[in-house]
Amino acid sequence: FFVNFVVGQDPGADIAFHFNPRFDGWDKVVFNTLQGGKWGSEERKRSMPFKKGAAFELVFLVLAEHYKVVVNGNSFYEYGHRLPLQMVTHLQVDGDLQLQSINFIGGRLPPPQGPPMMPPYPGPGHCHQQLNSLPTMEGPPVFNPPVPYFGRLQGGLTARRTIIIKGYVPPAGKSFAINFKVGSTGDIALHINPRMGDGTVVRNSLLKGSWGSEERKITHNPFGPGQFFDLSIRCGSDRFKVFANGQHLFDFTHRLSAFQRVDTVEIQGDVTLSYVQI
Predict the structure, then answer these.
(1) Per CATH, the architecture of 142-277 is what?
(2) How far is CA 101 from CA 19, 166, 230, 275, in A?
(3) pLDDT tens digits, residue range 82-114?
(4) Which of 53, 96, 138, 158 is the most exposed place for a label (fewest CB within 10 A)?
(5) For the domain bounded by 2-94, which CATH number is listed?
C-alpha cells in the first residue's frame, strides 16, 4: 500500500512524499518524491514494521525539516523535504489495506473561548485549569477544537449517551483532565485525569465542593507521551463505561445520582484534540 502527500489533485500532480511498504520477498519501505512527472532517487529501509493481517497505527509528524514516520508508537524514519511542505494540499491512501480511521491534528486554530477554568485538582500532576445496546451521540462532531475545550450537552446527560474524544498527548505532556460537569453548581460527576509522569489515570468526582475518593486501577494505560488515543465514554444508568482504542479501560459508578444534570464537558491540560463528539 502507499500514502502520498500530494500537491493538488490533477492527474500526474507532484507528490511531495511517497510512503510505500512493499511485501515482495525483500520486505522494505520505499520513500520518494515525484516532481515534474519524474521520480527522484529512492530512499529505502529494509525493515518492515507492518504485519499481514495485523492492525497498525501510522503517524506522520510534519516537522519543519522533515516528515517523521511513527509506527505503533515507535519512531521509524525521517524523510527530508524535497518540496516545500506548504505546497501539499491532499492526502492519498491506496493499496492493500483496510482503513479504520484517519485523523488530522494541528494547523491554525481559533483562539480558545469559554468560561473560567475550574479550580485545580489536588495532588501531584494536577491539571491547571463493545456494548449491549447501540450508543447515542447527540451532537455533530467538532474537528481540531482548541484546548481548553468546553462543550454543552444539549438536554443534559442521558443513559446510553456516548461521548467520543480523539487526541494526542504531546511528548512533554504531564497531565490533562476531562470533566463531566454540572454548570450551575460546579459539581463534577466524573473527572478523568491521565498523569503521564506517574503513568496513572485518576478518576474522581467533585460534589458540593469536596473531592471524593480516587480510583486508579486500569487494565492498560493508553495515554503515554507522544501517543494518540481514541476514547469512548458511555453513560449507563448506574455507571460510566470507558473504552480506549477499542479496549475496555475502566468503569466508574455514578456518585451523582442525578447525572442528568450534567450539561458540560470540559477538556484542559497537556493534550491536542483532533475530534470531539458529544
Answers:
(1) Sandwich (2.60)
(2) 18, 11, 10, 11
(3) 999 889 999 999 999 988 778 787 654 333 333
(4) 53
(5) 2.60.120.200
